[in-house]
Amino acid sequence: MNHQDIPPKPALPPRTGSLPTVQGGDAGSAPAPESVTWSQPRQDPGPEKRANRRPAFWKAFLIVVILAVAGSLVWLAVWLNSAPGTDTAKSAAPGVLQTAVTPPATPQPLPRDGVAPADYAVGDCFKDFDPQALASTVVPCDTGHSAQLVATLHYPDSAKYPGADPLKAKALEVCQAAKLGPAAKQFQLNYQRSYPSNTSWESGDRRVDCYVTADGGNVINASVLP
After folding, report:
1. Inter-residue contact 225 to 181 (CB < 8 Å)
2. Taking a C-beta distance cutoff of 8 angstroms, is the pair 126, 138 a contact?
3. Which among 43, 50, 118, 152 counts the fewest CB atoms within 10 Å?
4. Which residues pair with 192 in a beta bridge?
5. CB 178 within 8 A of CB 168
């Protein structure tokens, strides 16, 4: 017989820690232990009892999360209604926006020198315009000028000072609301905003103005309003 056809000898079964190995003889002749002591088994909750705790835990956790979210929403609503600046925004929001020429306009005849900013009217055209000047020269719009007042907003006298940033943003809205006519396309124009400072507000200045200006000087010779 070819030894290569002999099946290998089966290996001994592996030893485990749960079965002691008996030295000598076979397993059937192993002597019985002299005594066996049984201890009271530890009371361990069954799998069903342990599993029943999880639904109760998740229910409690879900309730806590719902209460936390509801509390956050309530707090947010209260904060929005009582946030600083809310009253100021409400008191400052009303105003009269003007984007068209309406009487009374700057008195005739023109040109007129020494016109104060408080007396500027929508549609006025200015020669050598300087937004920081305490007075300007108003000229007919069909003569050379460098700026024209195209829109203005008047806050009520009872309004509180909104702050520089809100006023700056409001001036941008005023410029966006300005309505320009076809003549505006004939010139290279820029928007220029003017709004009260804290000091001028205390003195009664409630105007936010929007001008169109030309960088090249008195090169505008027509009204840019419709």
Report:
1. yes
2. yes
3. 43
4. 211
5. no
C-alpha–C-alpha distance, residues 100 and 123, integer Å = 7
The mean of the pLDDT values for the chain is 76
Q: Which amino acid is at 215?
A: D
Long-range contacts of 122-127 (CB under 8 A, 24+ apart): 122/98, 122/149, 122/150, 122/151, 122/152, 122/225, 123/148, 123/149, 123/150, 123/223, 123/225, 124/148, 124/149, 125/220, 125/223, 127/218
Read off the pLDDT of residues 7-32 as tens digits, 9 standing for 90 and up: 444 444 444 444 344 344 444 444 44
List strand residue ranges (DSSP E) for the chain, in order: 96-98, 112-115, 125-127, 136-139, 147-154, 190-194, 207-213
Quick one: pLDDT at residue 109?
87
Q: Give the residue from 113, 121, 129 showing the smallest Cα distance to 212.
A: 129
